[in-house]
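Appendix B: complex inputs.
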Amino acid sequence: NAGVTQTPKFQVLKTGQSMTLQCAQDMNHEYMSWYRQDPGMGLRLIHYSVGAGITDQGEVPNGYNVSRSTTEDFPLRLLSAAPSQTSVYFCASSYVVGDTEAFFGQGTRLTVV
Amino acid sequence: DAKTTQPNSMESNEEEPVHLPCNHSTISGTDYIHWYRQLPSQGPEYVIHGLTSNVNNRMASLAIAEDRKSSTLILHRATLRDAAVYYCILSGYNFNKFYFGSGTKLNVKP
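Resulting structure:
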């Protein structure tokens, strides 16, 4: 049981490049989400999904796209990277009801130069 | 969406109890109170959650006020490994829009 797996762990991008951050979970969780964490700050919700084919925006969705074609995977796409997107990105998953715990990945540290 | 208020930082001595407070005056009847912690360079880790009654698990206890407008996370004997940022978060009946605040940074002194 691997939990929540994020790849890559580290990435450096040039401004304007695109990339996809991968997130996979093996717990059959309906709910998955993406957060970003800037230095010294709390986590901010980017996008979330309550099941395959269903996604919605969080607090800071601009510049990011998501899709959910399977229960297991929830990739986050940066279409045209900007220095302001330099951050640590965390993926989380859980069952959809609030009476449960969420599991987090170990993060992807992204630097845009 | 209901928000929470926590002190920015707290300090504790090793092997002493720690009480971390959280105010959530706009909590709704179906909101669960969750606590997570984040150790340096790691992803957040679940600690405990509850709805109305006090809760205990192997990591901590959660004391919820009768009016549910505040709660307290209790670490019974702090260790150096408990030094982390602790987040108090409200989740609705359905687990979506799970918002983190700025959390409380706990420093544990040997």
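The CA atoms of residues 48 and 57 of chain B lie 7 Å apart.
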